[in-house]
Structure formats: structure tokens, C-alpha cells
Amino acid sequence: MHSIAIDGPAGAGKSTIAKRVAKELGFIYVDTGAMYRAMALYFLRHGISGEDEEGVSEACDAIAVSLEYENGEQQVLLNGENVNALIRTEEVSMMTSDTSKYRVVREKLLSLQRELAKKKDVIMDGRDIGTCVLPEADLKVYLTASSSERARRRYKELQEKGTVCDFEKIEQDIIARDEQDMNREVSPLRQAEDAVLVDASDMAIEEVTEKIVTLYQDRQL
Ligand code: DC
User: Fold this and answer.
1) pTM of the predicted model as reported, rounded to 2 decimal places
2) Which of 81, 90, 134, 161 is deepest in the core (most CB within 10 A)?
3) Pairing between strand 65-70 and 3-7?
4) Is 130 in the pocket of ligand 1 (CB under 6 A)?
């Protein structure tokens, strides 16, 4: 099986790019953030605080996360319920960053992620794919962009959905989330030694997609 790992901070365009690369190469796109988001939704629904490690750990036993694909789109199921439409709010984003720092939460999802990569050619995005989940990936990319550019894209995306939002607040949330994801003890976000750094601040989506496809193809020669 072949695999591509894409890591990077929030809003760098990982999922948009990974979906396109997956299409071009005929790979399955696996969005690992969605799995952490589904777990965070469970904690929110049950009134468990992101700071309550014990409560989070206990709740983990009651959670089953699984993936399905509908017309090629990943759907994440939380105890059998499709929660795709419920996991993209700012509240869930922050809760996800708060709770994905716990080892018990990460261990729950790690084996599922590795199993997927054993069965199919995958392009997987997240924070620790190159450093932890798929250390043997054929290609590792660390995709980043300036925080203002990332906030601008996120703002645009929310506006298009008709959500009222404040640019400053979005940028602050993004910076706070990066800070937490990069500085946690377990599997922090960092560029793997053998990852290619791609700064997409001034690059179009098509350009980044082509760069990754080419990098991958060159490695297969
Ligand atoms: O990629 P995303 O924005 O959907 O991720 C949401 C949060 O989940 C992110 O702030 C950190 C966490 N996450 C993680 O810790 N490890 C991953 N592989 C993917 C996401």
C-alpha cells in the first residue's frame, strides 16, 4: 500500500489539497481531525470539560468512532450517528484541540488510522501523521501558511456558509489552537525530519496540489 502524510497547523488548506491529490492519484482521503472532532463532540454533549482528564478518560470507553465513504466523501460516525455536519463549529474546534492532547484519546484513534492505511492507498492529514501515525509514508508534507492568511481563508469559508463571524476572533482562535497543538506532550504538531515543507501563503490551491502530486510521482520512479 502507498501513503502520503500531510501535517500542518489549522487552516493551512490540508483537507482541500489532500482531497484533490487523492482524486488525482486514486487514493482514499482520510481526515483524522474529523475523528478527534467527533470525540470532542461527545465530550461537549456530555458536559465533560476539556481540562478534566479523568472525565475524558472515563468517557472514552463509551465512544466508538468509525468512518464511512459516501460518493467518495468521508463521513465520521460517532456511536453509529453521522456527525459530519456537527463538527465544524469553533466550539468543537477548540474542544478538539483541548482534548486531543490526552494520550487516551490519541491511542483510541491511532490503531483505526493505521488500519485504514494498511488496507488502502491513503493520503492522510492531521498533526502527527508523519511523525507518529505513518512513519513509513512514501511522502510526508508539512503544509503551512501565515496565520493571517489562514484566518482569512477560514473567515471566507464561514461567511460563504452564512455564519456570522469576527475576523480577529478567528485569527486568535487559530493561534491559540496552534500553540496548544504544537506544545502538548503527546504527539505535538511538528515537521517530521523527512517531511517536505510547503508554505502555501502565496500559492494557489492548484499549484500546491500539483506540487504534491509531482513530489509523490518523482518518488515512485
Ligand atoms: O485538522 P482539524 O482542524 O480538523 O483538527 C482539529 C484538532 O484536532 C486540532 O486542533 C488538533 C487535533 N488533531 C490532532 O491532534 N491530531 C491529528 N492527527 C488531527 C487533529
Assistant:
1) 0.96
2) 134
3) unpaired
4) no
